[in-house]
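Standup notes
- DV: blocked on the single-chain target, sequence here:
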Amino acid sequence: MPLVFRAAAAADIPAIVALVESAYRGDASRAGWTTEADLLDGQRIDAQGVAEDIDRPDSRVLLGESAGTLMVCAHIEKQGTACYFGMFSVRPTWQGGGIGKRMLAEAARIARDEWHCARIELTVISVRDELVAWYERHGFRRTRVYKPFPYGDARFGIPKRPDLRFEILEKSL
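- DV (later): unblocked, structure below
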């Protein structure tokens, strides 16, 4: 499938929010393997947060489109010598077909070639073993550095269990 990458603009925000929500929350997310529906209810992202990511310096929301349809998105942000990678979402019915791998490669290319970053970092909910394994197969390593999950902040979802936390994964570029 041909995939065209570009930076998001304000007009893309509704489609980005819909894609991210469909990849992680609710019954629609169960069509793919990245669902967090068994871990969290509520929203995964909101329009205001996406707008802030688009507008912030050294930040880019990347879109991958095929025939004008949004298939994948991610947020990257230069943070010193590292590039943070997040908001990674692939249309659920297309997960497992290589689109995510292509987006990850594009984000790494920008981080390395345009921003001159030495590594790319991300956070993942530590109990997501299958997702952690996917990142490890793509060159990331577990750091065993953890961040607390923002319990009580509905902007990040409503937890269904008390043991959620984020782990930082990293990859040298």
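- Follow-up: The chain has one domain: 4-172.
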